[in-house]
Amino acid sequence: MSNNTITESNFNFPNQKSVYKGKVREVYNINDNELVMIATDRLSAFDVVMPKGIPYKGQILNQIATSMMKATEDLVPNWLTATPDPNVAVGHLCDPFKVEMVIRGYMSGHAAREYKAGRRMLCGVVMPEGMKENDKFPEPIITPATKAEMGDHDEDISREDILKRGIVSEDDYIVLEDYTRKLFQRGSEIAASRGLILVDTKYEFGKTKDGKIVLIDEIHTPDSSRYFYANGYQERQDNNEAQKQLSKEFVRQWLIANSFQGLEGQAVPEMSDDYIETVSERYIELYENIMGEVFVKADVSNIQNRIEANVLNYLSQK
């Protein structure tokens, strides 16, 4: 399976200044002016990158994110300028804000865990009494996160602390909140049109060289968002049943069942080729539900060569 997935890249593009390698994406700085972002097939769960890539995962994430950026650019400007390859997005070099804008329409995941522990305040926002897991909040709540000083774990932070610590200026933060609410509203409308509920998601923003605040990174993908199926949602809530989710939660559950939660001393369980195939099929199912269209598999006979040729062709035409 070595050629038909991309788990790392070592390209050397013209005018390349540096490379940043995240858990899933690899970002090439071209001339301190634009970024070439490659969505690999790496799978991350519990802040750990799994040993094997998932066929088509990078293409799926990239195509959802770029499509959703185009579907929201009338509301919020974004960094994207081109998609020269199914796994590649190109855009403006930005100075990223050091907060992730997490917005929650429903009490799920981290919010539900905090609530179950008896806490009614999340990131300075009050959560009403009398709610149960997966209930809808009266209004969507913004619960920002910031990268911890040590390691990759995100930490909850309140609006007040963000401003007090000078992480973001008040003027800029007002824009981030406004953009976050507008994007979530549009994302919720898109999801509803496809029989889905956008439960919660996160947005990242940056500033371009001329000082404009833009949306960066990914948007409304199954890696950054949680979706429920709308059909049967209320019945499941009324019957205290788990909701049908569209996210990578199924991978986390499989890992937990195989005694792995990213804790010290735990070994990542072996993922057989058959299991990898089922994960790939689930990601394709996610794509088709979120996008409302059939997924078209790109040629992966030699994915590294394909990406390199497409990016070089794009850069040569500038």
Structural account:
The protein has eight helices and 18 strands. By secondary structure, it is α+β, with helices and mostly antiparallel strands. The radius of gyration is 20 Å and the shape is globular. The two termini are 34 Å apart.
Write the topology of this structure.
Blueprint: E1 16-21, E2 25-30, E3 34-39, E4 44-45, E5 48-49, H1 57-70, E6 80-85, E7 88-92, E8 95-96, E9 99-106, H2 109-116, E10 121-122, E11 125-126, E12 136-142, E13 145-147, E14 154-156, H3 159-164, H4 170-193, E15 196-207, E16 213-216, E17 225-229, H5 233-238, E18 245-246, H6 249-257, H7 273-291, H8 303-316
Antiparallel strand pairs: 1-2, 2-3, 3-7, 4-5, 6-7, 8-15, 9-12, 9-13, 9-15, 10-11, 13-14, 15-16, 15-17, 17-18
Gist of the model:
The chain is of the alpha+beta class and 318 residues long.
